[in-house]
Known about the structure:
The protein is mainly beta. Helix content is 3%, strand content 41%. It has one domain (2-111): Umud Fragment, subunit A (Ribbon). The chain has a six-stranded antiparallel beta sheet. A four-stranded antiparallel beta sheet has the order 6-5-4-7, with no helix packed on it. It starts with a strand and ends in a 6-residue tail after the last strand.
Amino acid sequence: MLLNCRYTKSGYRPGDVIALKRDGGISIRRVIAVAGDTVDITEDGVIINGALQQEPNIHKKTDRYADGAEFPLTVPEGQVFVLADGREGTADSRVYGPVRIKDTLGKVMTVIRRRNI
Length: 117
């Protein structure tokens, strides 16, 4: 079960974990950039507005996808750029580009899980 808070006028901030509608299902992704931010992914890692991001909880390299978004890109108004925490082989904004805020369900507040389900 997932508990989320709907998007509010205060908006999303980098670091927020959000739920979004994607390909007929719900995906959980982390916001790394908001409207007006420039995102680049290089051999060095994820770069936001010219600054290399320190991501201590990401243990795999963040690669571009050959058939994905073109970098660098500036996030348009009303959209956010999201990445999965498990970066390898995961569809996120590297594949489909920035996400429209209207396609998000809200900020994830908590995830409730039971074993064996």
